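Repro case for the chain-ordering regression, as requested:
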Amino acid sequence: MKHETLEAILAARAERRPIVRLVWLESGEERLLTSAAELTTADPALAAAIESAFADDDGGLVETASGPVFVQPFNPPPRLAIVGAVHIAQSLAVLARDLGHAVTVIDPRRGFLTEARFPGVAISHAWPDEALESFGLDPRSAVVTLSHDSKLDDPALHTALRSNAYYIGALGSQRTQVKRRARLAEAGFDAATIARIHGPVGLDIGAGSPAEIALSIAAEIVACLRRKK
Amino acid sequence: MMKSGKGGRVDPTANGGRELDPLAFAKRWRAEGQGVAVATVVETWGSSPCPPGSQLAVDARGQFEGSVSGGCVEGAVIERAQAVIESGRPETLEFGIADETAWSVGLACGGRVRIFVERLEA
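-- result from build under test --
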């Protein structure tokens, strides 16, 4: 691997640009691509692998006339926006980070959201809808609302439901969810859109403590990312 | 992307105090003047904990970050990586329970894995 290749991959990752590396295993020769259109190859298997690397984050080994080539996507890491700097958020921020997500915690209540309580995590004191607008939700973004305060959670959900975020979760009991769905319907969201919200949030593992609830949410986020459900 | 300013300190690329990207370590070790090799899983068969694309960075001092298996073959990969750092010739290694001739290490899970090891060039 050339030194410039390493630098280009790290720069693309930091700037959230997709990049795909081809490496010929026998010679060690390599090629970096920033889009599928960049390389015209007569090899249909190689072309398909490159296409799939950009579209599905899925690489693989391809046998070509010039020997085996490994196609490796370096897509932007997934991101998680957590609304509500509560106790569960402290555990979830750590878990999600270890699971490869870039984490941002959003809460306008400065007493809750401090660097001391969220060391090393990106934080925003803007209102959740505004914060999520500038966060720029995309298909590799997840959002979870944990504040338990509809003044904060609802604006965040409005923005999330208008985006193509791959996961939207909202903390709250069945009763809270029913009331929330009614408010969202009143705000003009149709049933299919509202049904994108995972709530009660998290996989059912009988979670009780804040850390256990965070684990159940992290597990649900992984399931959605990997199974693309 | 979030901007800093009104909303407070925001850095979407901040990933906690702990760096998890093996390539970032490769860069750091190279900057420290060390020879560095990168091992990449390129193919797996059967049960294997690290999917293709998983990487392990190794330096000439034997420091390593990342993983290419559940821990079963890392030792052997790190050893071969030293040879690759020396020679500069990339190598493709294969590990699996059925493969007893070339390597004494096997995957307890019964899977097979193919790993490409290359030197980080200047």
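Ordering looks correct now. Helices of chain A lie at 3-14, 44-56, 87-98, 128-135, 150-161, 174-186, 191-194, 210-227.
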